[in-house]
Amino acid sequence: MKSTSTGVLPAEGGLGDHPLLAVEDLHVEFRTRAGVVRAVNGVTYSVGPGETLAVLGESGSGKSVTAQAIMGILDMPPAVIPKGEIRFRGTDLLKLSEEARTQVRGQRIAMIFQDALSALNPVFTVGWQISEMFRVHRGMSKGEAMKKAVELMDRVRIPAAKQRVHDYPHQFSGGMRQRIMIAMSIALDPEVLIADEPTTALDVTVQAQIMELLAELQRESQMGLILITHDLGVVADVADKIAVMYAGRIVEHAPVHDIYRRPAHPYTKGLLESIPRVDLKGQDLYAISGLPPNLLELPTGCSFHPRCPYRQDNCVTDVPPLHTISGTRGSACHYWREVVDGERQ
Amino acid sequence: MGRYVIRRLIQAIPVLLGATLLIFLIVFALPGDPIAAMFGDKRPDAAVAAVLREQYHLNDPLLVQYWYYISGVLFHGDFGVNFSDIPVSEIMAGKFQVTLNLALTALTMEAVIGVGLGLWAALRRGKATDTMILASTLLLISVPTLVTGFVLQLLLGVKLKQWTGLDIFPVAGTFAGLRSYLLPGFVLAGTSIAYLTRLTRTSLAETLRADYIRTATAKGLSRRRVIGRHGLRNALIPLVTFLGADLGNLMGGAVITERIFNLQGIGNQLFTSVYLREQPVVVGIVTALVLIYILANLVVDLLYAVLDPRIRYE
Question: pTM score, two decimals?
Fold first, then answer.
């Protein structure tokens, strides 16, 4: 790997040996008055062109913070990245100058946020906000850019786009607003799209439509999609691989079907078992006991040990490494074999 | 929107009537006799006083007097005459110009200095600049106009000339044209500048924490554009409201400043007229001020809808 100097933009065109986007041993801390919050503690994942990586985890697991670190939109300070790399086409984004990062942001790596109502600026029309991408980054005239905005709104299937381009965000329904957010993010054909809980704020029926739209756009443009969610139901249909996060670590990663069939980490297993199922109607719903860890004082050893039904003595003292299960799978559990076997019974 | 404006103007009528009646009653309740005041130290002749009383309807019941007055204002645009038979509108006209000049100077300073300092503080939050700006606004708020007025008049109006020979700020009066409004304008705007600075700082800081600012950053926009377009445009909304409402305050609150700098504005006139029990002049000035208040508030409300598309008037 050649080291990159600041200001050099990642190459375009062929990928060579490099993955499209690879996060490696990323650490993010928030240095607050109350102490150091270790939000991300050594996350490693990657996504290729046309591939969908689902990052799964409950609130506070560090999945959003990782995404914001990739985008470079963390408030620094209080956030600090003491260690790790974020390689985009082989270039470590963390080593780039701020100007160079601004060139990557939005144009080559784009992001969709959870609540489109608060994520869109209330005082500008949606057309203005979408066309801003073309005006600022492509130097288009107002008229041209506006035409592009209408095209994009058509592409994300907003009815009567030509008229609605002059409306304000609050005049749209939740689903339509998220479509606008999507239109804005794909405006400049980014190579990577990060969707941070894009459907959490929406009705179930609308959720499916939005996921379908994302999948379709991805097929058309071959962008790498990082889908951040806490909803296992959303993941199954669209994701190629899953990374499960807990307390700022990836505790399990695997191709999507392997995880559903045979989870190799007690936390993943707990998550899967806590999904309500029609065939188990009437029975008590399983819940993972205990609470998510306090990031100010992470438990010793494996962060999950206070809540883990498979706990042994060494879990309290030794941090489990990410064991390789197969070429594409890994689990950060000392007893992953028992977990996998347990699922068989 | 048109209907909204009309409705607001109709709503202003009872406000105007109520305000004038209240002022009328208060001035009437002041101790002292206006006819006696006309004669200064001398004791007026009883017969002459009686004729004058009759002429100015002073013997009629209070509400009848009010009716004479308000019907004149409403139907003839006639604010009446003072006890020297000079039309009140004539007295007010020139004085309003002076006060308006003063208020607009103050408002401009307020907008430029207040918003400027506020933005600066917001962008340097927690740093020395921020702390210093906050401390000086606190000072400005705590010290009364009476003190800042005389101190600045002495330092910038008198001493600056003595020490450096530079004649920038006239000590008093309006002989130097717009330049003579700079110092009194600042004194008048003082506390407002401080409040607006703090409001701006809070408003921008609040706005910069919003989700859409994060979105704007994620769009790959420069920090300048993120703050300047996306942030400022939203942070501006409460500031415009404050500025609009403050125009009325500045016009009505200029009494002390106008006395200190001897500006012949309505504040000064109001002081004199209250002193002389010139009921029609006092009521006339206050009525005009109430009108300005109402109009300024209406303009603010309409501006609000322009600045924030989420607000709609039906």
Answer: 0.76
